[in-house]
Specification:
141 residues, two-stranded antiparallel sheet, four-stranded antiparallel beta sheet
Amino acid sequence: MCGALGFFAGCASEPASVVVSAPPPPPPSATAPVVYTTPAPVPTTTTIYTDAAGRQVAVPSPVGASSIVVMQAPPAAQQEVPTPRPTANHVWVAGYWTWKSNQYQWMAGHWEVPPRAGAVFVPPRWQPEGTSWRFYEGYWD
């Protein structure tokens, strides 16, 4: 209620709205690799990879997984020596290169207990696609 007193004292109503906007980001530099995060395509083929024991394994791409596309090839995998196996239930998950903070970063290998009996770990991988590289996350199958 604003009467004559409110007129002179200033009637409190809604505060003034203020729109704060950040300046637009700078255009990408020509030397920075371009990274896209996109849904992975629905798998229509099976990828063949060689596991640590030298066996060839057919791996379907998981449906609905997201992936990263980078314009530069990943570095060669680092050589790792697994630590002693904690229990007979543990499986070694080898290290791999991932893309974080606009650069490749090494994710060290580690021991994991499979989510269920008979589960097989399908390692993450980088696949060339024309002049770019697409990353597929590892998963338990």
